[in-house]
Amino acid sequence: MQDETATGGLDSDRSTPAALDLDDGPVVGRVLGTADATPLTFWVAVEDGAYLQLDDVVITERELPEHAPVRIAGVVTAVRARHEGVVFDSDVFLVADGTLPATIQEAAEITTTRVDPEVYVPPTPGALVHRARGEARAGALYFDRMDRTIPMGFGRDGAPMFLNADFLDGTRGAHVSISGISGVATKTSFATFLLYSVFRSGVLGGAGETANTRALIFNVKGEDLLFLDHPNSRLDQATEDSYARLGLIAGPFPDVRVYAPPRPGDSSGTPDVSSRLSGVDPFYWTLAEFCADRLLPYVFADADDERQQYTMVVHSVTAHLARTAQPAEGGIAIDGTRLNSYADLVDFVVEQLNDDATRGQWAGSAVGLGTVNAFARRLIGSKKDLSRLIRGDLAVRRPHQINTAESAQVTVVDLHNLPDRAQRFVVGVTLRTEFERKEKAGTAKPLLFVVLDELNKYAPREGTSPIKEVLLDIAERGRSLGVVLIGAQQTASEVERRIVANSAIRVVGRLDPAEASRPEYGFLPPAQRQRALLAKPGTMFVSQPEIPVPLCVEFPFPSWATRPGEAGAAPSSTLRSIVQAGDPFAVVARVGGGGISDDDIPF
């Protein structure tokens, strides 16, 4: 039995029919007899000198006739303290003065997480309750049933918390939904820590992880995610020790490639970033690719657009461009007219739609002039936003496409300098391309984790759009194809229901009070809903299928730079970009030998 002094003076003659071993942790109290105890919830009277806090894990046991003892484990979901022996509210002052005798009693509500064996009987009032530690804690939280675990931070007791990899990599489930207030909930920080844990824990293949996993991260706010491969200069020994306790090595992501859009008005295609000057490559689409790959619908990627009649014109013009556009030295030629920029293409299409002789060929014969004009107005409005992304003036053979299969383990696509329409275009086209590539490959390996913030903007609850259809496809079929969506949003209530419903892992940080009351957060116990209103950065509530109660998790400080001011020395692999990766003199040596043309010389 537990030492009596250490457990607050429990008498041996007060022992219950069931007692647990020392290995189960110290005794913290007894099952309360003045409140109903059920197989799913019960209250514990906290022993003098002991305490229970929210999220603590406890365990008790009950003896049954002609049956093995039933072990009942649970998590503390509410704690209260009161004076016993007083009647009036003002009696608290008399108790404090010592003129009125009273006893302070603390009690904790326990929500059952596991019953072993599964005989659902209530614990006996007066039964000893232990603080669960070691194997007892692992059993209470089902960690002992997880064949592959991913560390995701620490519990309130300071011990590691784990995620079941089977519900992340598609074996039994996939996708993660992260909700919380922008700037406070640390949604992106938790998403990147989860990726780091997946990549560095060895759970997905050890030495072969780089070949087995990929990540595609869209950076939509500032340049904070452009330094994942730089060590964090603020990293201290305590943080390194916390990573070691999780079985991880503190450091930056080892294999990162960053893509950014070209600068506006820059004919050389220089990436539009200011804080990182090396290891960044531009991305864009040529006019020929825009037409041949039927990308025009993603210009109209707002969910409101699909409710308009001019979407018929969008699809008709898209098909006509795919049939008639011919590549012409970087630009395209349509019916003998040479077009060298996106603005040229827009002006040409609008001209054809305004001409009575050609309007039917481009828009179809059953479309009214008002619908055509509505399409033309929106197409003209896209020139400013998309001209630097759809190019006819840059080298065709120059690497410019985002392709995670040929990129690094982590591919970061920077969008923060792009207007909203351009961001939608890049996200929609990139996700469609990557998903189609996985479909053609016909295998789930390597896994592709897609991290997308502001999910409520790309997949809103109401309306339809090309981007929303791609995201729905990923949510519903991505598991079998090895595409895992890690979506973050301020308001899960505004995200398409089927995307949230298909997320096996749900994570909540700091919430707005109005948002916390929505039914989308019904998986949180009442106490956790209240705590989500004041959760500090770095504290997340994680729900996974095997565990009945969401776990409160605190993840460690990032060991990679999260902003330019934290960036340590750049790794040698980032000193050259893709375009600069080749030896220019080796390139020159191949000119004339049939292997390369003059246009490909990188200077």
Short account of what is shown:
With 603 residues, the protein is α/β, with parallel strands linked by helices. Helix content is 27%, strand content 22%.
Characterise the protein shown here:
The protein has about 600 residues and is α/β, with parallel strands linked by helices. About 25% of the residues lie in helices and about 20% in strands. The chain has 18 helices and 23 strands. The strands form five sheets. A ten-stranded mixed β-sheet has the order 12-11-18-10-19-20-9-21-22-23. A six-stranded antiparallel beta barrel has the order 1-2-5-4-3-6. Strands 14-15-16 form a three-stranded antiparallel β-sheet, covered by helices on one side. Strand 3 (about 55-65) and strand 4 (about 65-85) form a beta hairpin. Helix 8 packs antiparallel against helix 10 (about 370-380) and helix 12 (about 420-440) packs parallel to helix 14. The longest helix is centred in the C-terminal third of the chain and has 22 residues, at about 420-440.
Short descriptors:
single chain; 603 residues; alpha/beta; 10-stranded mixed beta sheet; disordered N terminus; disordered C terminus
The structural class is alpha/beta
* Largest sheet descriptor: 10 strands, mixed
- So what's the overall shape? elongated
β-sheet strand percentage: 15-25%
Q: What is the distance, rounded to the nearest whole angstrom, between the alpha carbons of the first and last residues?
A: 78 Å
| Strand order in space, largest sheet | 12-11-18-10-19-20-9-21-22-23
Average pLDDT, rounded to a whole number, is: 86
Oligomer: single chain
Total strand segments:
23
Q: How many helical stretches?
A: 18
Cα Rg: 30 Å
Fraction of residues in H or I helices: 25-40%
Q: What low-confidence regions span 5 or more consecutive residues with pLDDT below 50?
A: 1-20, 579-603
